[in-house]
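Per your request, structure below.
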């Protein structure tokens, strides 16, 4: 049942990145685009979070302290967290590209200077820009 005047919940974007500048910029820009954004500084902090959103996507840095982004996604999948994910990293080598492709995870390269990440978020969520 929809309550008159109510809005559907905003899709959640969960960011895992240890760089505060990147995290703050992503939180700001994705919030402006209408997403509910929550961030974590490392894999362990995200793994300790419960419950995770049912609707939305993960934006995960590959180079995290302790556990890399693909290993984090493997752990989440093993725990039946099936949110779509996007891997962000700088200069990914061919082997990493293959691993990400095998895992069904698109890569967006840093620095995040264009709309590539936003476009990827919309793509994995199945939404189209209103612009």
């Amino acid at each position: 049942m929809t309550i008159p005047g109510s809005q559907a919940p905003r899709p959640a974007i969960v960011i895992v990145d240890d760089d505060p500048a990147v995290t703050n910029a992503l939180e700001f820009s994705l919030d402006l685009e209408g997403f509910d954004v929550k961030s974590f500084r490392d894999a362990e902090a995200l793994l300790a979070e419960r419950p995770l959103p049912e609707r939305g996507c993960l934006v995960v840095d590959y180079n995290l302290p302790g556990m890399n982004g693909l290993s984090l996604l493997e752990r989440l999948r093993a725990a039946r967290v099936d949110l779509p994910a996007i891997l962000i990293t700088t200069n990914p080598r061919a082997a990493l590209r293959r691993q990400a492709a095998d895992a069904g995870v698109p890569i967006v390269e840093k620095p995040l200077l264009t709309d590539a990440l936003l476009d990827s978020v919309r793509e994995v969520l199945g939404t189209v820009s209103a612009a």
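The chain has a mean pLDDT of 90.

Regards,
D.
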